[in-house]
Amino acid sequence: MVIPDTNIRYIAIEGVIGAGKTSLARLLRKEIGGQLILEKFEENPFLERFYQDPRRYAFQTQIFFLVTRFKQLQQVLQPSLFDDFIISDYTFDKDRIFADLNLNPDEMALYNMVASQLQKSLVTPDLVVYLQSSVDRLMENIAKRGRSFEHNMSREYIESLNEAYNYYFFRYKASPLLIVKATDIDFVENKRHLEDLIHAIMRPNRVAMEYFTPLGDFGLSGEG
Which end of the chain is less packed: N or C, by CB atoms within 10 Å? Predict the structure, then answer.
């Protein structure tokens, strides 16, 4: 695949649980090279307990994710590394979506104090790719991958999370944003979909928000 010249070096891929973030990050790295940053969710000792008892373990789960994500990104996102591409399957500030959904007001106030200080020292992505998907597709993907700690994840929780993600990213201003209609795309099995998506990701001269729809008329629409 011929990759167009671009000034994009740091790409972050986002989406609700089951949207395909890690799959796309791995495929993108395979095609364009660079360094891959993957979220280490399995290292969070509170995550499985959170899905069993959300009220009790929400704060511990969020703080652990917040601090470990900060440490991981701080170590990798050094200016000297930006000669190559950096591809991540998460953004640091997306953690606030989960916090808003799961924490009580006092916990959220404390969380915001910590998160705001940490975020000041991190680099903002050159492009965020948001994989927007339907709840049906998300639930199907979650069931297909069969992670034990996700067995108790309810449809209602995924619906709430999907609404929260849409609300957040349709108002996102920190980086250029590419919204991908992930319900209608199969970038894992369909080579044409993957190639078209990568060209959409890597193209220069971006506007603030663009949409990528793989079926029917392939292409982009933009909003300045």
Answer: C
- CA 30 to the chain's CA centroid: 18
Residues of the chain with pLDDT under 50: 80, 217-224
Local structure of residue 1 (DSSP, 8 states)? -
CATH number, domain with residue 198: 3.40.50.300
* DSSP code string of 44-82: -TTHHHHHH-HHHHHHHHHHHHHHHHHHHHHHH--GGGG
Count: domains in the chain: 1
- Domain limits for position 52: 10-223
Q: Reduce the secondary structure of 197-208 to three states and give it as a string.
A: HHHHHHCCCCCC
- Taking only the tens place, the pLDDT of each residue in 28-69 is 999 988 889 998 888 899 988 998 898 999 999 999 999 999
Which of the residues 89, 95, 126, 196 is marked catalytic? Answer: 89
User: Phi/psi at 84 (nearest 5 deg)?
Assistant: -110, 170
Beta strands per DSSP E along the chain: 10-15, 35-37, 86-88, 127-132, 177-181, 209-213, 219-223
Active-site residue flag, 93? no
- Report the length, in residues, of the chain: 224
Amino acid, single-letter form, for residue 7? N
Looking at the domain assignment, is residue 2 inside a domain? no
CA atoms within 13 A on the CB side of 86: 23
The first and second tokens of residue 26, run together, are 């791995």
What angle separates helix 155-169 from helix 135-145, to the nearest 10 degrees?
120
